[in-house]
């Protein structure tokens, strides 16, 4: 198994320390549980730093363990090849990209609900002012579809935490760097090559996000996962293309 690299080790330590600090409220004067998750950008609890801070927080021990295990298992080989600076840039970029795509999907769901309410006579300003107080009008549940209402409320009120978006970017990069490495899904006891394994995982997340039927369980920001993988794929594609363009030669 790959020996843990320095940047990966430091990221794991930082995530573990922050998890313990938040879990046991070791800094009572600073409510990290409230200020570090990423909220919908029109929610009064949103702050710009959450685009980064959310990826260093986790909801429970299992969430932390699986993300840090994946960071070690798939991140260490990449850092070994790339070095510290390139790996850290890639990791943070995928986490930020995941947050932006997650927020973009939330914006779509919020606007969908807002438009449905406007069509029934509620003004956008009034709806937003009620939501900004942490409330909602119970009449809204009766006049728009349940799925639209639930998606709108979830988009506005539910914060997101976790390194999963950055981890999915790492998974995408690993599949492109080591396509024939054999991996196993916990419910399929048969080794699958990374070039198939990772797209399957991302595809299941996309399916869960689109349909609302979560294959991996509840309280998962599926589009953040997909966004991180997409960001990782695009960065890898760009780096490969740039490397090819710099090294190619023309026959005369």
From TrEMBL:
A single GO cellular-component term on record: membrane
Keyword Ribonucleoprotein: no
Keywords: Hydrolase, Membrane, Protease, Transmembrane, Transmembrane helix
Keyword match Transmembrane helix: yes
Molecular-function GO term, any one: serine-type endopeptidase activity
InterPro entries the UniProt entry points to: Peptidase_S54_rhomboid_dom (IPR022764), Rhomboid-like_sf (IPR035952), Rhomboid_protease_S54 (IPR050925)
Protein topology in the membrane: Multi-pass membrane protein
Superkingdom in the source lineage: Bacteria
A biological process term (GO) from this entry: proteolysis
Record family assignment: Belongs to the peptidase S54 family.
Name of the featured protein: Rhomboid family intramembrane serine protease
Protein source organism: Capnocytophaga stomatis
């Amino acid at each position: 198994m790959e020996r843990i690299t320095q940047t990966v080790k430091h990221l794991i330590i930082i995530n573990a320390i922050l998890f313990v600090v938040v879990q046991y409220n070791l800094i009572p004067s600073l409510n990290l549980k409230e200020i570090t998750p990423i909220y919908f950008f029109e929610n009064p609890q949103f702050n710009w730093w959450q685009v980064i801070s959310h990826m260093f927080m986790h909801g429970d021990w299992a969430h932390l363990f699986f993300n840090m295990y994946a960071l070690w298992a798939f991140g260490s080989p990449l850092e070994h090849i790339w070095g510290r600076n390139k790996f850290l840039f890639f990791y943070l970029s995928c986490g930020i990209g995941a947050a932006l795509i997650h927020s973009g999907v939330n914006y779509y769901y919020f606007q969908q609900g807002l438009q449905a309410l406007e069509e029934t006579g509620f003004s956008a300003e009034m709806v937003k002012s009620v939501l900004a107080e942490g409330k909602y009008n119970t009449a809204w549940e009766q006049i728009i579809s349940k799925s639209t209402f639930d998606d709108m409320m979830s988009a506005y009120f539910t914060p997101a935490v976790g390194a999963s978006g950055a981890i999915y970017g790492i998974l995408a990069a690993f599949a492109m760097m080591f396509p024939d490495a054999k991996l196993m899904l916990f419910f399929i006891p048969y080794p699958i090559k990374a070039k198939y394994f990772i797209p399957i995982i991302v595809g299941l997340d996309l399916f869960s996000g689109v349909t609302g039927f979560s294959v991996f369980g509840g309280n998962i920001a599926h589009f953040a996962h997909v966004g991180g993988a997409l960001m990782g794929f695009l960065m890898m594609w760009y780096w490969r293309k740039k490397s090819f363009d710099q090294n190619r030669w023309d026959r005369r």
